[in-house]
Design brief:
61% helix, 21 helices, alpha/beta, Transcription Regulator spoIIAA
Amino acid sequence: MALAIASGVPPQIGLYTAIVAGILVPLLGGSRWQVTGPTAAFVVVLAPIAARFGLSGLLVATVLAGLMLIAMGLLRLGKLIEFVPYPVTTGFTAGIGVVIATLQVKDLLGLTIESPAPHFVERLGDIALALPTTRLPDVAIAALTLAVLLLWPKLTRKVPSPLVALVVAAGAAWLASRLVPGFHVATIRDRFVFEAGDGRLLPGIPRQLPLPVLPWRVGGADGQAARFSFDLVRTLIPSAFAIAVLGAIESLLSATIADGMKGTKHDPDAELVAQGIGNVVAPFFGGIAATGAIARTATGIRSGARTPLASAIHGVVVLTTMLALAPALGYLPMAAMAALLLVVAWNMSEPQHFVRLLRGAPRADVTVLLACFGLTVIFDMTVAVTAGMLLSMMLFIKRMSDVFGIERATADHPALREPLPPGIVLYEVAGPLFFGAAAKAVEALETVDRSARVVVLDLTAVPAIDATGIVHLEAAIDFLRRRHVAVILAGLRRQPARALVRADWRHRLPDVRVVRRLERGIELARQAVERGDAPAL
C-alpha cells in the first residue's frame, strides 16, 4: 500500500499488484524463490506517469512494459543484464533512494502542499516553503514508527518490524486522538475513497477481490477514462521502456541474490518472460508494475521457502488479509507509511556500498557512479541509465585501447631460435584489434625501418578483430606495399581468421601470406629474404 501511495495511486492498487502478479509469476518464472510485487525502485518511474496520465496511463504503460519483457525473454536477452556495470546500478539505486525519501517528507511532517512538483529541485523548494505548516502530531507518529522500525529487529526478527511498527503507530494515533484534544493524524481513510457497488464513495480501501478491468478505461489524470489509441501507445512507449528495463534489472538481480543464498541457478530468460506475463495480466485486474522484490524474496528464503508455491502463497495471504482487514487498514497513519518508506529508501540506497565505491573505485568508475546518481535525482532513471551505459562503454573502449599493444619483437622472443637476418621485422600484436585501438597499429607500422623487406605480424594474442580493425590493418599493409615491403600474418585465431575470410582478403590482398603458426611465418620470411623476393602464396 505504501508503494502504491508513493507512486501516486490508491493503496489498494498495490495490493492488487501483489496478489495478481505475486501468484502468477512464481508459477511461470525461472527462479524457484522469487517473490514478485510492487517495489520501491519503481516509485520514481511510476509517480511521474501517474501524475501526467493518471491511473489508466500507468496501467497501459505497464502492459506495454510487460510485452517488452516477454520479447526480451524470447530473444534470450536475460544474460545481457549482467553487463550493466556495478557503478551504474549503484548510482541509480542510490538516486532512487534519495528521490523516494524526498517524496515522503510531505506526509512525514504533515506539510500542506497543494500540488507537489514532479521534479526533485522544485520539490525541495515546495518543501522549504511549506515547513511552517509542519504538524507535530504527524511528526510524533512518524518518529514513533521510525523508532520501532529501527529498534525492533534488535529484539527479534521472527515478527517483521514493519508489521509491529504500523500496528503500534495506528494504535498510538487512535489513542492520542481520544486523550489529547486537537490531536489528529492523517490516515488512509482521510486521503483515499473508493466507489461502492451502489455508487456511494466510501473512505479507505475496498474489501473485494481484484476485478477485471480494461486498463485504458480506468480514470485518467483528469478523472476521465482514456481512449485507447496509437497516439496513447506512442506517448507511453518511453515510460514503458523505463519500466521494462528497471523491472528486468531488479528481477534478475533479486534472482541472482536468491541463487547465492540457496546455491541454485535461475533461468534469466524464463524469468523475464514470466515477469512480462505478470505485468501484462496485472493491469487487467487493476495492478501496476511488478518485479522481483529482493527483500521479500530473501525473507521467504530465510523463512524456509523451498518451491515457487511459497511465493504464490504470499499473494494468497495478501488477498486474504485485504478481504479480512480492509476496514482496519484504513486507519493506518500516512506519517507511519511515510516513515516506513523512508527506511526502505535508506536500505535500498545502500550508502555503505556507495561510499566504498567513492573511496576505492578507479576515478572513471566514480565519474559513472556520480553521473548516474545525479541524473537519477535531477532528471529520471531512464536518462541516468542511458548516460551511465554510454559512459561505461566509452570507458571500456578506452581501457581496451590501453590494453591493446603492438611492439617490435626483441631477440629473446620465444619463437626466434636464432636472430632474424637483416630485412625482416617481427611485430607482436596483443589485444582486440577493434575501432578503439586499430589506429595504434597503423601508427606503429608506418614507422617501420626503410631497410625492412618483410614484416611478420604475430597475431597470436589478438582474440578478435572488427570491421574498423580490418580497414586499418589493410591501410597499414597498403602503406608497406607501396614501400615494397612484404607482409606475413601469422598465428591468427578463429574469429580474426573468419573475419578476414568474410572480408575477402584472398582476392583483395593476394600477395599477403596468412599462416597459422608464427614459426612458419618466420621461416617464409627467411626464405623470401634469401631468394630476394616477397613470400609467395
